[in-house]
Amino acid sequence: MGLFGKGSDGRQFHFKTAAEIELMRNANLIVSKTLAHVASMLKPGITGKTIDKAAEEFIRDHGGRPAFKGYGPKQNPFPASLCVSYNDIVVHGIPGSREFKEGDVVSVDCGVELEGFYGDAAFTFAFQEVDAKSMDLLQVTYASLYLGIEQAVHGKRVGDISAAIQEYCERQHGYGVVRDLVGHGVGRSLHEEPEVPNYGKRGKGPLLQEGLTIAIEPMVNMGKKEVYQMDDGWTILTRDKLPSAHFEHSVAVMKGKADILSDHSYILDEIKNNPNLQEVLPKS
Ligand code: MG
Ligand code: MG
């Protein structure tokens, strides 16, 4: 789940100890395995509702709490354990009864709370056969996530992450990087300071220091960057109706190299075993 960009309100960052980072790794392990469980189920005809129910059971069976369920404003909390966002839905899609079919690109976003710490990660799946342009969008967006993570090291700034993602997706590939939603601090809450936009300037923004834990989550549109929200108060769609992609990791800022707390390898293994899905790897 992303955060609506509001600008920093100046709250202090929550730096995590090594022990707290391990608790976050545990929460993220459930997230990663839940997404892998979803990957194992995906087939044409399956609905968002079905995978959401399975995901909630999986999370609870592993001792976690689905962090998205009930999140948000009291009068309109998010009703599900997963965000399921297909094709022109960017993020925050409410799992529904639409049956997925060949050619769909489906982002599944999962958050888990375990022992007071949060994990958050997302992956966009390709239902065979996805057209070449959509596959390119997925691979570029996925690669941009790792370009962002490369910058998440002690001594750099949030803007270094933002600029790495934006430059790759917009300047090199001509896509539209979503402005209205951003990555975020994560750990003791699902959304903490600082905001981690997918656009920005190198050398600007909050200083990254060891123990800062953040969710990096490029949301990238094949066409223009503009999005709008449906009247359900959640679902975000592209204005031009072209598809969008979304990949997310929770990471801890470290000296030299970020520590990636969520683990997509479980998902990638299930994709390999599932003939209904096309492999998605970061564009090299
Ligand atoms: Mg998320
Ligand atoms: Mg998030």
Tell me what you see in this structure.
This protein is α+β, with helices and mostly antiparallel strands. It has one domain: Alpha-Beta Complex (Creatine Amidinohydrolase). The protein has helices at about 20-40, 50-60, 130-150, 160-170, 265-275; strands spanning about 5, 65, 80-85, 90, 105-115, 115-125, 175, 180-185, 190-195, 215, 220, 225-230, 235-240, 245, 250, 260, 275-280. It is globular. The site of one magnesium ion has 7 residues, from loops.
Helix content bin: 25-40%
* Amino- and carboxy-terminal Cα gap: 26 Å
Bound molecules: magnesium ion
Task: Give a short account of the largest sheet.
Answer: 6 strands, antiparallel
C-alpha geometry? globular
How would you name the CATH homologous superfamily? Creatinase/methionine aminopeptidase superfamily
What is the CATH-assigned architecture?
Alpha-Beta Complex
Radius of gyration: 17 Å
CATH class: Alpha Beta
Mean pLDDT over the full residue set:
96
Q: What is the total tally of β strands?
A: 17
Share in β-strands: 15-25%
- Supply the helix-strand structural class: alpha+beta
What is the CATH topology classification name? Answer: Creatine Amidinohydrolase
Number of helices: 5
Question: Which stretches are low in confidence, meaning pLDDT under 50 for 5 or more residues running?
Answer: none
